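Need a sequence for this fold. Nothing fancy.
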């Protein structure tokens, strides 16, 4: 690959009171409409801006990281910038927006180092429907490092309007089960509006400016990072990446990101379109997700489920009613019947197997509800604590496979800390080993996981019939 040194250019503007130096570079989408501009200030702070067809979408916005051993948010120097590389990807989704997906983007890598000669790379990709960037620490370590803060911001003009969901503070609400991503969206509010909760605003976050629509989200969050949000405060329309609250974890396990090096962070995704249909149709989140880790197509068939709880509640999780809902699913040519909470006590494993056997005669598969909870909430609904460890999951999943169960619904997750992200993914991978589909409820958003872990059929975070 060929690299070049950026030549100094005088720039008579300032960012946040800091004069820009001449180190700057641009990258455009394949159709030339979306453009990013990356620059350094005289103090070595990295910034980017985004435009579409000449209209500014994001003003100068910050880049950088503060790691447990060093600072990569200031006093940076730019070693080089890669040539533009065209990135293409074609893949198939078992379920989701589109069966056949096709991604093309232009890629450029910015190689920077801090005063201690430690390296950070910022990788940008620009496609016709948006911008994505991530950080990479390419060096190798034998010790675990943490990220204390991500300096990334999204700086909108103050005329921009926002459609945002506030994130409840951790371990509040019913049985301390928040955040469950079930709050009402605040509609068409000015950017800079303060979130009512310290936990900030959830992603995806929607903005409109002029005739453009912008969605900010993240993709490719794996076991080595936490889920992120937008900050509670956004002065002058500038939103920061905010990490989860300290309580959003499994017992004494990580909240903040930690990993050995080398280390790739998730993609920061900015979808930009001139109509809402384009935003709905965009597959940018899965385009940037990791390719599927395993093949479920021989055994997994997505479909609709009958579900008694939505109208009949807990009292209906009994054998006779579930028998009727299997018949109902069959009469509708639906593939599944979901048996919700308390089935272990009000029906029992032996009778559930009988229901599963009967359902097979009707071409219906049974899904069973589980409480994810360890100590992060006080819900008493069962089965509870069956999935907490690898050993307990494998034992339970083997039992389910022996019973002929088609999948699981897992509820009451404890937030977005790194250990909770790992818990989601561990459940998915282990469930796939036993040919189990997965539905997460009261859960975070998927971040492209249904491409990477295709037995993830759905994630629900809606204020329903409770």
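Here you go.
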């Amino acid at each position: 690959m060929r690299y070049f040194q950026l030549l100094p250019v005088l720039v008579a503007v300032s960012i946040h009171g800091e004069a820009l130096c001449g180190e700057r570079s641009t990258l455009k989408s394949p159709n030339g409409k979306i453009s990013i501009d990356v620059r350094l200030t005289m103090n070595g702070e990295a910034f980017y801006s985004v435009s579409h067809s000449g209209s500014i979408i994001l003003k100068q916005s910050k880049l950088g990281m503060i790691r447990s051993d060093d600072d990569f948010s200031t006093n940076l120097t730019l070693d080089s910038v890669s040539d533009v590389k065209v990135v293409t990807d074609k893949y198939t989704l078992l379920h989701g927006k589109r069966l056949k997906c096709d991604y093309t983007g232009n890629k450029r890598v910015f190689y920077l180092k801090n005063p201690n000669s430690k390296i950070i790379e910022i990788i940008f990709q620009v496609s016709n429907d948006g911008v994505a960037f991530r950080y990479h620490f390419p060096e190798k370590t034998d010790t675990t490092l943490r990220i204390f803060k991500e300096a990334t911001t999204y700086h909108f003009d103050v005329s921009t309007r926002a459609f945002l969901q506030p994130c409840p503070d951790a371990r509040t609400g019913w049985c301390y089960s928040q955040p469950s991503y079930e709050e009402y969206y605040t509609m068409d509010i000015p950017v800079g509006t303060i979130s009512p909760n310290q936990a900030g605003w959830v992603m995806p976050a929607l903005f409109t400016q002029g005739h453009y629509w912008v969605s900010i989200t993240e993709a490719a969050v794996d076991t080595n990072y936490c889920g992120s949000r937008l900050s509670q405060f956004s002065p002058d329309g500038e939103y920061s990446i905010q990490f989860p609250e300290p309580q959003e974890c499994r017992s004494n396990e990580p909240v903040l990101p930690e990993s050995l090096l080398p280390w790739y962070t998730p993609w920061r995704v900015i979808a930009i379109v001139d109509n809402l249909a384009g935003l709905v149709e965009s597959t940018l989140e899965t385009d940037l997700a990791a390719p599927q880790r395993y093949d479920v197509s021989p055994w997994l068939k997505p479909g609709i489920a009958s579900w008694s709880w939505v109208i009949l509640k807990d009292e209906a999780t009994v054998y006779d009613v579930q028998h009727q809902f299997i018949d109902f699913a069959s009469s509708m040519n639906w593939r599944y019947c979901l048996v919700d909470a308390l089935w272990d006590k009000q029906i029992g494993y032996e009778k559930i197997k009988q229901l599963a056997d009967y359902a097979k005669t009707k071409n219906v598969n049974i899904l069973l509800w589980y409480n994810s909870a360890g100590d992060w909430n006080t819900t008493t609904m069962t089965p509870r604590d069956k999935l907490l460890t690898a050993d307990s999951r494998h034992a339970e999943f083997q039992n389910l496979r022996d019973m002929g169960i088609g999948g699981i619904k897992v509820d009451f997750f404890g937030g977005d800390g790194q250990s909770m992200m790992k818990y989601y993914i561990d459940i998915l991978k282990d469930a796939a080993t036993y040919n189990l589909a997965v539905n997460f409820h009261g859960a975070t958003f998927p971040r492209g996981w249904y491409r990477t872990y295709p037995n993830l059929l759905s994630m629900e975070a809606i204020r329903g019939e409770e």
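For context: The first strand starts at residue 3 and ends at 4.
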